[in-house]
Specification:
mainly alpha
Length: 157
């Protein structure tokens, strides 16, 4: 990818530059609140955010969930808050960008679950027409942006 097409890049001082057009920021601005609503009501689309550790042992799974669920929920909410607070920023520090990565991943997983995304769909290509086409486009965009965040973070390794 050409450097000027990148949405996230590492600056010489160790911070990260966000090169997000206004249209993209507007889309991203709406997503954390939508996910927060789903987290508040325990929507079934959240299953990928809280995967079971013990598929064959409901008792152990319940114990595991009682130990980690609230912490995972807090971590996800914190990442969404950081994204919301910094959506208009031109620079982020590494901690903020890591929170963005977490939020982007969570948003993508939930949207993918809602859309019924499968590995086969990657081979066939996501639908570009139909009533859910805009949702598929957002899903693809989130994955693309997530890749850019990972690449920017990896530049410092």
């Amino acid at each position: 990818m050409r450097r000027r097409d990148r949405r996230v890049s590492r600056a010489a001082d160790g911070t990260f530059r966000l090169h997000l057009p206004d249209r993209e920021r507007e889309v991203l601005r709406t997503l954390p609140a939508q996910l927060r609503e789903l987290l508040a009501v325990g929507d079934p689309a959240l299953e990928r955010l809280f995967p079971p550790a013990y598929l064959d042992d409901p008792e152990q799974q319940a114990e595991y969930a009682s130990l980690v669920h609230d912490d995972l929920l807090r971590q996800r909410a914190t990442s969404l808050e950081v994204m919301e607070e910094t959506i208009d920023a031109d620079r982020l520090d590494e901690e903020q960008l890591s929170a963005w990565l977490s939020a982007l991943n969570d948003l993508r997983l939930v949207l993918g679950t809602r859309l019924g995304i499968t590995e086969d769909m990657y081979e066939e290509g996501l639908p570009e027409e139909g009533p859910d086409a805009p949702k598929y486009a957002v899903y693809a965009y989130l994955g693309w942006l997530e890749e850019q965040v990972v690449a920017a973070l990896a530049e410092g390794l």
